[in-house]
Amino acid sequence: MVSMEEGNGDPTRINKYACACAIVASMISIIFGYDTGVMSGAMIFIKEDLKINDTQVEILAGILNLCALVGSLCAGRASDYIGRRYTIVLASILFMLGSVLMGYGPNYAVLMTGRCTAGIGVGFALMIAPVYSAEISSPSSRGLLSSLPEVCISIGILLGYVSNYFFAKLTLKLGWRLMLGIAAIPSLALAFGILKMPESPRWLAMQGRLGEAKKILLTVCNTEEEAEARFREIKIAAGVDENCNEDFVKLTHNTHGEGVWKELLLRPSPPVRWMLLAAIGIHFFEHATGIEAVILYGPRIFKKAGVTTKNKLLLATVGVGITKFVFVVIATLLLDKVGRRPLLLTSVGGMIFALTGLGFGLTMVEHSHHKLRWALSLSIAATYLYVAFFNFGLAAVTWVYSSEIFPLKLRAQGHSIGVAVNRVMNAAISMSFISIYKAITIGGTFFMFAGISVVAWLFFYFFLPETKGRSLEEMEAIFSRRTKPRNVGIEIQPGK
Fold first, then answer.
1. Cβ contact 426:287 at 8 Å
2. For residue 257, how many other CB atoms are within 10 A of its CB?
């Protein structure tokens, strides 16, 4: 445990214990990122070994996300019922089972079964890791700690690309199976490691377990005053009298997520309706702007640009992983200093520029009868620039934003709706990219993504208020119609 003295009494200082908890919770995202990254290279060898066609490759790539859609919707209710911590354990077990099946993979059917099992685990992981991190962190460090899952995804993707490069040197039958199956080992270790973590104090308060919630808050806050202030806000949000000093209270309202769907979808208040629109919108545009095409089909894109050998294709893809990791770390460090909106708008603006350059470069290569070295260089540079801008803002902000904006009672299942939309769009891009570029050319496809990015920029500008530095219990006021979106997060005018 970390004592309050170690925090030096400064409420703005990152609490070491809270940081350690967020890191452990986020490590499940490394396994998900690895699975995504390693599949980009493994598909080259799977297609050759199992003799499958492009349609089967698309289904194999995208089915994980359709299953993650189911997982994310189940995870919202599960995390309200069994707690945030045990939901992470469940995700780890599902990952492990999926990895074992994919590593065994004697045929396409077993491979698909493993991919689907891992996909459900992905849905659980993507929903729960940011929510847990947001609920255990203080407002001054929430952006940093809630974006750690995205950093871990980037680490995992990079490890997957590196694994592709080294395991590709093994025999055809063994190489891709080791690429996919090795993820079972960290999944098992993580399932045991997470049991050492504390439960979310906000979830404990929802169950009426106030004594346990306060004890955990004293370890994840730097001062007793900060812990008391957060505890009062949490009690009010959970429907408990802020002056209550009981260790356990029996709450009269539902505490396991019952009735939440009605409040979210059937009878939402105006602020909740706005929150839901913001969460769905940011998750929709994260993948509608084409990142999965680059992450999953990077080798194909570089091949279309003019890179020929498998080793060079895999090395170029490793460069994508390194770029992703570096820029998502930069974004993570800036989230609590610069704010969500500036990073988001800068990120999407840069993506528009990079996607236009990539579309132009690939179009020139495709319509040329001889090798254009400048177009190849432009395509590779634009790909790296696109990945850099995407991770500089949109990648990190998406998960932080949708995990922090909903009220306590609606948070898990509200965030799960955003994750479900995220997985639908991920699946849509994964399973249609090859078909789309065959229909409108690969250059035309990236021009299309550039156009979608323009719409995304406008949506973010008009509909996403700033949330930097605000407590989770303040979000309903921020999303009130009383305050204009562009000014929210700066000043809430009282009495209006």
1. yes
2. 19
Tell me the domains of the chain and their CATH numbers: 4-202+258-478 (1.20.1250.20)
Residue type, 411: R
Asked whether 490 and 476 are in contact (CB, 8 A), the reply is: no
Question: What does each C-alpha distance from 458 to 140, 344, 451, 481, 491 come to in angstroms?
Answer: 28, 11, 11, 19, 23
Predicted TM-score (pTM) of this structure: 0.76
Q: Tell me the three state secondary structure of residue 6.
A: helix
**Three-state SS at 390:** helix
- What is the Cα gyration radius of the chain? 23
pLDDT digit string (tens) for 136-162?
Answer: 888 888 888 888 888 888 899 889 888
- Hey, what are 227's tokens? 């812990």
Measured in degrees and rounded to the nearest 5, phi and psi for residue 198 equal: -80, 160
Identify the residue whose tokens are 């208020």.
Answer: 465
- Taking a C-beta distance cutoff of 8 angstroms, is the pair 443, 380 a contact? no
> Under a CB-based contact definition with an 8 Å cutoff, are residues 419 and 280 in contact?
no
Torsion angle, alpha carbons of 439, 321, 150, 480, to 10: -50
- What is the identity of the amino acid at 391? N
Residue carrying structure tokens 């940081």: 19
Taking the mean position of all CA atoms in its chain, how far away is CA 105?
Answer: 27
